Amino acid sequence: MELCKNCKNRISYSEFLEYLDSGRWALSVGIDDIMTKEEHLSYIDSITSFEDAIIEFVPDDTIPELCERIDVFIMPTNREPDKSSNSKHIQFTKQTKNKKNLNKFLLLIILSLFVLTSKGQRVGSISKLGIKGYFEANHEDLDEIEGIYDCSFIPYYIGGNLLFGQKTWGGQEFHTEAYIEKLIDGYWLELQDKTIKMSSGTGYIMNLGLVPLGDTNVYRLTGKFEESYNHFGNSGKVEFKISTRATFSQNVLSFRFKGGDSFHIIEVVVSLVKIFPTHKPKAKVAPSQPTNWTGTGFALNNRYVVTNYHVVENAKSISLTGINGNFGTKISATIVAKDQKNDLALLKLNGNFNITNIPYSVKSTTSDVGEEVFVLGYPLTSTMGNEIKLTTGVISSKSGFQGDISQYQISAPIQPGNSGGPLFDSKGNIIGIVSAKHVGAENVGYAIKTSYLKSLVESVTSASVLPQTNRVANQNLSGKVKAVKNYVYYITCSK
Q1: Three-point CA angle 304, 309, 311, nearest 5°
Q2: For the domain bounded by 292-494, which CATH number is listed?
């Protein structure tokens, strides 16, 4: 605590308040005279009583560097504070008859503030507003764990000596209130009764810090436990450090810790129930569902089209463009078969036309790791445009996400909108249907093996709808893309 970091300089009362208002901790009164450090000391020494004194609390977290005795100022009410200051003042009406009592009061305040300022960030507001006042005033900004708690404190003991033998005792619940507030690097748990007196005269002191363990409801709890005891002819004081884990769930913080000395082992079970502020959980608002979305599909014989089940799931309307390279005309389609487990859907285009001369074949045998592949599709059309996109890569694994044998893992980059598109091998055979990407890794995608497509097709029609003639095997990649792109379609779905 500092009265004035630059106390060697002469400052006015308003300057002093201005300094305090800049964010320092102090319990102070204003000085409306210009005073040196020595005059400050003399002023303190001259005070032997105070009545209706004005006490001012201002935030800070520093320890004195100068003015070691100037931790507290009392301003009698006949000294008018600077009305222009934004500082808040509290009327203090307790009367002290002599300087000895005043010094005790000052010492108590200094010690209290020293404990508070050693903790961190928000303590100043609690000092100024009181515990409940602080939580009321900051109701909207509190973390879930912050607040006032009803604290149950149950100690258990194992111990003894040669005279009495080994004993077990304890199990009695003791009760106090506590509060938890946020600091810069964690939380502070403080009991209202720092020393809990019991019939045996035993006292307990705990000062505890809480640090969250990642994005969980578990906290690392550290602090100090002290017990002064007198049991079975043994008396003394045991102290040990607390380091344990605490769990916060449904407004209850629970933990236990253990320690002891040569006489006995102490295990303490602590449960804190949050009593203020409490909130009724807000009703969860379901995330808004899109009314329109897109994907990719590719042609089979007899106007059949393949895509992912998740592309057409819950769609009331399905339309396709890009048929024979025509993006100006939308053709509607109907779902004729679906395999939700393997994320496949078989559509049929509505109309009386046929799709002929499909230049690729659908290969149902498994391809090998390391084989070069390419993907065609319509990803992120809102930002990347409606032109078909090509990416290339290799088969990284013959199993997919979490070892799923129905999928390949591929290195060809894929994005939302690629779903349902074809995965070609280096000869232009379709060997998979693109289905997903790994959001936690770069260039890791998954495609469903065509053997599962064959099973879906055979469940509703003849396997002859799967194209079996490859007309592009001898072309370079550019030629392959040019030949097959008119059979890869842009799918639009809506509710």
Answers
A1: 95
A2: 2.40.10.120
